[in-house]
Here is the input.
Amino acid sequence: MSLTYDELRETMELTLWAAQLLAQSGAEASVVERVVHRLGTGMGGDWLDVFLSPNAVTISISSGNEFRTRTRRIVAAPVNLTTLAEIAALSRRTKRLRLSREEIRAELQRVSAQAPVYNRWVIVGAIGLACGAFSQLFGGDGAALLIAWIAASGAMLMRQQLTRMYFNPILVTIVTAFVAGSIASVLALSGITATSRAALASSVLLLVPGVALINGAEDLIKGYVVTGLARAVQGGLISLAIAIGLLTAITVFGGQGL
Amino acid sequence: MMSGSLLGALLLDLLWSAVAAVGFAMLFNVPRRWLAYCALMGAFGHGTRWLLMQGGTSIEIGTLLGALVVGFLGYGSGRRLRVPTAIFHIPGIIPLVPGRVAYEAMIGLLQVTTATSLTAQQTLLADFSVNVIRVGIMVAAIAIGIAIPRLLFDREPPVV
Here is the structure.
């Protein structure tokens, strides 16, 4: 049974919503396409064309003799792999159990309103420890672990605070890298570590644009050149911003001994 | 047979890689039940590179093979558990990120601007270029390593 024009409107709205959530939470283009296609055909559409561009997603959906097309804006948001997993699971359930549009709407509502899994203080401690772990992988001593942990945790607090105040992400990155570099430089100059380079290098790694660079490369490999280039450029800019913030901190506080 | 100190160093490497992977998994809001998988991906990927480098392999080839380990493990787990592979791939490759080399490149650039002799500038610029190239190769190696399983197994005819 094909969908009526009005039913297509609601299907359109729900698939666009899912596509927007996926794209904002850090899914690569091929995943957005595949999951949204599965969701839309699971809701009774015959076919969907999903076109992801860096700042928007456009979907055309057809059923029987009717079709609809609409675009929705995508804004920058923090990477959220829980959202990604839950929407992928929703698309599978829709296909298998023929969920109703009301059930799908309720689930999308729940996913988009859900609080982060980890409390912000837990993240501050964990990401600090992760940067400390990096100092060990880079051959640092025990003091380097401690310096990186403190510097990265402090920087993460700063990043959370600035992001909450809606500062531009590039600016947030520069300032955060500066804070991490300053704390690490001051501590390293006190002479407690013999491996100050390992401490400094690891203290800014919380900012590494891993998702942008990895998804960018994946998009490029799979033929999604526009989104791939956009992500690669974004990753490059963030890396540059880290360098600016860190080098400023080293120049101000440390000198070239670091 | 592995000597005791080498085994100890390997275990430490696995431990710290796992800690790094889990920290970033939490930053990326990975559900609690998958954190242990992320720890294993991070440890096995970086552990592979560490072992290869002990045997004299270059860091670039080590990174590619480490990323391949993460790629296949993540792909297999994702398939089996019906979860998007990104949940395992993204935290899993984190320990392979060339942070140290990127840092050396940055410091090199800073030193170029303050070096006084031409020879010193040339040496520093050459070092800088080499480090930038290495970072580029390692990032590409990571991306290719985790893309390969899907390119091998998820082949479909193009649809229009």
The longest strand of chain A covers residues 56-63. The longest helix of chain A spans residues 225-254. Chain A touches chain B through 56 residues (CB under 8 Å).
